[in-house]
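Title: Prediction job returns without error message
Component: structure pipeline
Severity: low
Priority: P3
Assignee: unassigned

Description:
Job completed but the reporter wants confirmation the result is attached to the right record. Sequence as submitted:
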Amino acid sequence: MASSKIPFVHFYSTHGIIPTRQDISDLDRHVERRCALYRHLGLSPGVFRGASVLEFGPGSGHNAVVTGLLGPDRYLLVDGNPPSLQSTKKVLEQYCSGLNFKLRRSSILAFRSREKFDVVLCEAVIPTQKNPPAFLRHVASFVRPGGVVVFTCMDPISLLPEMLRRWLAWKWVEDVSDFNDKVARLVEFFRPDLAALPGMSRRPEDWVIDQILHPWVGPLFSIPQALTALGSRGAVLGCSPRFLLDWRWYKSIVGSQSADNSFAIDSYYELGLNLMDFRVRLPQTRPSVVRRAVEISQAIYDGVFARERGQAGFSRRQMLSHLLSLQKLLRDHSPKTARSLHSLVLYLQSDMRRESDLAEFRKWWGRGQQYVSCIMR
């Protein structure tokens, strides 16, 4: 497969970038954050000690540092972007002295190995690939029976606030041709938004490049879609945020029940509105409400990318129609989110002239990507 056709790799290689860098100057804090993620996923530090680990798409390698410090016996990292491999090598040598690790330059879909691994990690890669279900099955094929695959999902509701920011960005860079100038202008415009996101460890320019300017190729990939793609081969172990509820008595989880992930899909459609706004803790709601929110959010996602790809327009009037429908739906279910939507509606109704109208919108972020761990059969 030609690198020019590989999602992520072509864009990153063209610009010579790794837009996943993190500040790990406080290494203890970085380790604590990462280990908290692993706990959500049901992975204690001991799971990695002496294990064989395969990581696809390590990015800058900053997260790999924590995995390396947990003491795997063998650690293979695969990436098709040379700057990513160079950065990963540098940080692992700096922070993980004595770690047995190897780097392999390869696109993920082209990777082949007869070896099966105890843990396979694939973070922030699968959504927006051309065929996410097939991509996930390929990644999971390298897990030994009883081993664990960790991957991330993004869906229309968790990503909606960033898609709306992506739509707003058009106005601010439509007259700018230089890539770096676009980044600088958008960093300045979205600075108040990023300041409202607690725990942000990513560089603002990297967020702008990856979430606003990166020309994504394929569809999003939700938790229900991922679990359907794995079928009975993968049993849900954990997720972050940790919201998948299983009320079954453990003694009843035998036979076909041991391969049944329907509880997780049900939880998604009962509690999924929480993914739309990191500020809220909402109770269970009717699945029909979540499905409608997904439907409207998907229409916005499709409209944004149809315009970016030159396939169709997506006017302010069209956007307003979707936002008003969603605001009405959320008014009783998530009032705080509805207020942020109203803030954006006011800005659009003012013909995008009064930035002060965006005050409440700037505070609104979704839960972005969700991490999922599954035990493979």
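Comment from assignee: result matches the submitted record. Residues 287-308 form the longest helix (22 residues).
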